[in-house]
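From the shared-data thread, chain only:
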Amino acid sequence: MSKKINKRIKVLSSQSGLRVDMVVAKVFPEYSRSHIQKWIKEGALTIDGNLAKPKKILKKGELIEINAEESAILKDEPEDIKINVISEDKDIIVVDKPSNLVVHPGAGNRKGTLLNGLIHYNASLANLPRAGLVHRLDKDTSGLLMVAKNEKTYLNLIKQLKDRNVVRLYKALVVGEPLSGGTINRPIGRHPRNRTKQAVVKSGKEAITNYSVKKRLNGYSLLEISLETGRTHQIRVHLSYLGFPIIGDSIYGSRKKYSKGTSEDLKEKISNFKRQALHASSLKFIHPTNEEDSTFESQLPEDMTKLINSIKENG
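Structure, as tokens:
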């Protein structure tokens, strides 16, 4: 889907003496400075009908016009996939993703992803990298994701993640009972023998996971987790490394499925829980437009709540 951009502004006295890219970026904050420079180089931005130069200094009364046609960045097909939007404004969408939904198209998953659903929900998202998704969750992890609706917001949220200004909290149901909370600071990289897995390895990238115990549940625990870094499978790898694998994690938790004293009935219920019991429960970030703290919460999904009740009954 191509997108036509037609905009015009008259230079005000307060804007006189400033560079054209600075003024356009201020008037149209949804576009980055580099995007505006691209228009200038392509001849899509004119001043009084003349092609603008990159460092052009403006004068009061000049007419700036932008006439651009841009092809969509994404070639993926929009699909009518149900999306649980819990909050939306002109800059950001916050989505509560169910389990069993892939976030981005990839090998073996070209369709049926959250990205396909997002560009059906809002076609303009096809003009943004990853349809505005600034972070991701594993297919079988449920919970909150933030989606930028314009370029400036996308770049801002990416920077907040990089600067560790985004607080992401997760709930995980694990095998075992940690004595207390703590921090796991161990590097994560490709598993040395199984290249489809991640592992704690000396050559890996820095990975920091904080955890606290919310409930002890007869040999199992509900943990709250916050991330300081965002490595692939970070929570799952770190908790398994610590000796408290997430229930239902077929990749990192298969060696220790049950706690001692687990009844046969509960073992069957845990065996039938077909995804890792991990939920992204809270998101906190600085809103790029009003610069206020924005916090969103998501309750535990029904499948995890039922499993917790079954564990309580086991005692």
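The longest helix spans residues 302-314.
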